[in-house]
Structures are given as C-alpha cells and as structure tokens.
Design the sequence.
C-alpha cells in the first residue's frame, strides 16, 4: 500500500485519480497535526474516513468534524477545505458521478461500521486498474452498497450564504472560544443586531447561539478524540466552568464528556489506539 504524505502530495495523487479508468478508486494519505489544506473540489464524489486523528472539513454550506468513528460523504464538485487535529491517517474513495447516483447529493457525516472500515482498508491496497470482474471489483461494489446504508450523524454547522454572516461564522470557526456578545459580532459583520438575528435563523435554520454552540460541540469532539482533558477543552471553548461545559455536552450528546471519552476509546479501531 502506498500512502501519500501531506496535502500537496496527496492532492497531486487525488487529481490523477479523477481520470482513472475505474468507477471507484481508493487512496491512503497521512497528514501532520495542525495541517490545513487549500480550498478545492473534485470531479468525483469523495468518501473521506480517517483511521486516526480528527479532521474538520468546511464547505460553502457547512462544517463537519470527522473522527475515526465517522466518515464524510462529499458529492462531486463541492468546494471544501480540511484541517487536521492530531496525526491523521486518511482513507478516501473517489467515485464517478454516474456510480454515485443512489448516494447522497449533499455532504453528510456517516457512522462507520466495522465492515466498511475493513473494506476501505482493503481497497487502498488495490492497484488503480484493479480487476473489475474479480474480487477487487466486487469489494468496491459492496463498498458502494454499504455507504448507501450508513446512518447519518447530526453533527453539522450550516454556513449562511450572506457574506456578512459568513464573515462572522468564519471568525467563530477560527476561534470557537471567543465570547464576544451579539452586538460585537454584529459589528464584525457590518450589520445591525436585529438584522443579524433575523437573517441568521432564515439562512441556517438555527439561532446564532444555537449555531455557536454546535460549533463548540464539534470542536470539543475534535479535542476529546485527541484525549485532551475535559477541563482544558471547557475553558478553551469559552465556558465558565467544566460543569457548564458538561451540561451542554450532555444535553447535546446524551452522555457526559468523560463517558464519551470512555466510549470513543472503546470504539477506536486498533490502528488508532
């Protein structure tokens, strides 16, 4: 298996795979902690799964946190950018648009089964021009069928199209712990407080406070998956105390941060431990 290291090398290989003479091709890549890719899109659909570390993926319509328990489905042509938390061992599929017609037509975070994880680990060992009529082709077809059955995970922060609101959201994504009040954020966007409140719900379906909480939750999951202490995560994300953070986390996830840490350790694939 060849694994491409860094965004530049993996980007070149991803570009080359867009014209491969197979409907589904796989790639392995590795990224250092803190790495940030450039904004880009692919002609093919992409199924993105990390064995280790966490990736935050931002598109024009939303932001997702991809941990080793999850994968992100990205339809063809969707502009996106990735940021790495911890060292990321990536497994990704590139799928021809006409082979993905029964799969989601919008970005979707998916829960990864043991079977899918095993299939994609096998797929990255195949040559680009694998035998479509043999075992390798059958595994790729099974992979497509399994992706269509994977349950979605409701962890997403939708991005508004209004550029003033987008400017505010981008600033929060860069610094989720910023506790500026609504009046201050209105000034960042160059619009009135009432206009911000009204437009934000209309464009995202969420209030500003709900959206910021969702971003903080996603950031918390990224850091907890890297085994950061709950207290550090809580204070970095702008909460007055670990208990306030834990209350938010329990309302959103149904378990406490420490229970989530234990659960995620149990669910982590062997390669990630």
Sequence:
């Amino acid at each position: 298996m060849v694994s491409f290291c860094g965004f530049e090398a993996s980007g070149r290989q991803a570009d080359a795979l867009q014209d491969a003479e197979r409907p589904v091709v796989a790639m392995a890549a590795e990224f250092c902690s803190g790495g940030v890719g450039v904004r880009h899109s692919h002609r093919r659909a992409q199924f993105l799964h990390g064995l280790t570390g966490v990736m935050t993926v931002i598109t024009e319509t939303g932001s997702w946190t991809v941990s080793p328990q999850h994968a992100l489905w990205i339809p063809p042509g969707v502009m996106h950018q990735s940021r790495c938390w911890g060292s990321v061992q990536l497994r990704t599929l590139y799928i021809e648009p006409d082979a993905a017609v029964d799969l989601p037509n919008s970005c979707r975070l998916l829960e990864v089964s043991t079977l899918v994880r095993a299939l994609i680990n096998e797929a990255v060992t195949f040559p680009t021009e694998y035998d479509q009529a043999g075992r390798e082709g059958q595994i790729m077809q099974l992979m497509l069928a399994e992706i269509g059955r994977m349950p979605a995970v409701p962890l997403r922060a939708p991005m508004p199209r209004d550029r003033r609101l987008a400017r505010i959201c981008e600033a929060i994504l860069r610094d989720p712990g910023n506790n500026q009040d609504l009046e201050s954020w209105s000034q960042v966007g160059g619009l009135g407080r009432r206009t911000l409140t009204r437009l934000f719900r209309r464009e995202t379906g969420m209030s500003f406070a709900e959206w910021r909480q969702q971003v903080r939750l996603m950031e918390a999951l990224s850091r907890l998956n890297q085994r950061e202490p709950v207290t550090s995560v809580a204070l970095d994300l702008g909460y007055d105390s670990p208990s306030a953070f834990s209350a938010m986390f329990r309302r959103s996830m149904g378990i406490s941060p420490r229970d989530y840490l234990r659960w995620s350790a149990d669910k982590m694939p062997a390669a990630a431990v």
User: Anything to note?
Assistant: The chain is about 40% helix and 20% strand. The mean pLDDT is 89. The beta strands are 3-5, 24-31, 45-59, 62-66, 70-74, 80-95, 108-111, 157-158.
